[in-house]
Every structure is written in C-alpha cells, then in structure tokens.
C-alpha cells in the first residue's frame, strides 16, 4: 500500500486520521513463516534478507504464528536522524564479510508500521485494529521497533517531526483497510518544506 503526496487533512477531517513519522528509508515486507526464519523483500520483490543480518532478531521477537509485516529500513546519523547517505552506503554492500564489518559502523533499524498477516489475513481490518495488533506484539530491540502514531491534531505531529529533523508525516485514515499494491489517499504523505527544517 502506498501513500499519495499532499497537504495535511483540513480541520474538518483531520480527526479521521492518525499521523506517523515519514521515514526516508527502504520499504520492505517482512515474511515470517513461523519456523524461526525470515525473508525481507524490497518494494520490487528482491530478497534483501542477507544484506541486513542485524534484523534477523525479528523471528526471535515474534516466534509465534505466521506473520507478514510492513516497514522501512533506516540508518541514523550521529544526531540520531535518518540519513539517506548512510543508508545508500549500506545498500551498496553485498559481500557477507563486508556487510559483517558494516554492521558496526552503518547499523540499520527496521521501523515496523503495519501488519498484513498474523495467523490469518489482517488486511481487511481497519487501520486502528491493525495498529492495535502490531502494538500488542511488543516488538522492540536495538534494531527493531514499532514507532508511535499521533492522534489529531495534525499540527502537533508536523511540528514534532520538523523539530526532530524528519522529512514529514504520513496521515493514515483510521477506518482504512490495507490495500496491497495500491496508491490511495487513505495514506497521505505530508512533507515539510526545506526552508522549515531546523538549522544544522
């Protein structure tokens, strides 16, 4: 499921959405068959599991039923903000030995923000129910987390992410199902203007 780029919902409809940080990273779908293994598939369907060995803790955190999770891989800079440059360096590595060394200097994190399957399909559930399921899993480790979602008003989420140096927020309609492969206004990507970013 993909977001459209647009302005924040107006005052008359902003309470119909939750607001999540816009991560400037690599979108992946995590497949956990329930046998202790995992596959990370990129947006184009490429298996990138071996490129990010530090994320193989996910099946340990979720050893139960089969699951499919949606999220984004990011790399942080020295100030704790997502860094496209550092992530691109990590994405270019493929040799296991080189990747092993890079884990120390270019550590990645997996931000999980949706759940498509948990023992049975969940895509038909509304966003609020899927978030409840995801939050109840309590997935947390140094490299794996479920980021918070803000309720309305949208301005609070926009101001907080601007101050923290993120690119913006994604507004997600509370009643929306998960629509695989579709781009819809149920998810709205709201980007900060460059001139509004804090000075570095």
Word description of this protein:
It contains 5 helices and 10 strands, in the order E-E-E-E-H-E-H-H-E-H-E-E-H-E-E. By secondary structure, the protein is α+β, with helices and mostly antiparallel strands. It has 2 domains: 1-23 and 148-200, Dna Ligase, domain 1, CATH 3.30.1490; 25-146, D-amino Acid Aminotransferase, Chain A, domain 1 (2-Layer Sandwich). Strand 6 (108-118), helix 4 and strand 7 form a beta-alpha-beta unit. The radius of gyration is 17 Å and the shape is globular. Pfam families: DNA_ligase_A_M. GO terms for molecular function: ATP binding; DNA ligase (ATP) activity. InterPro entries: ATP-dep_DNA_ligase (IPR050191), DNA_ligase_ATP-dep_cent (IPR012310). This is ATP-dependent DNA ligase.
CATH architecture of the largest domain: 2-Layer Sandwich
Kindly estimate the percentage of residues that lie in beta strands according to DSSP.
25-35%
Structural class: alpha+beta
- How many distinct domains? 2
CATH class of the largest domain: Alpha Beta
Helix-strand pattern: EEEEHEHHEHEEHEE
Give the tally of β-strands: 10
Strand order of the largest sheet: 1-10-9-2-8
Stretches with pLDDT under 50, minimum 5 residues: 195-200
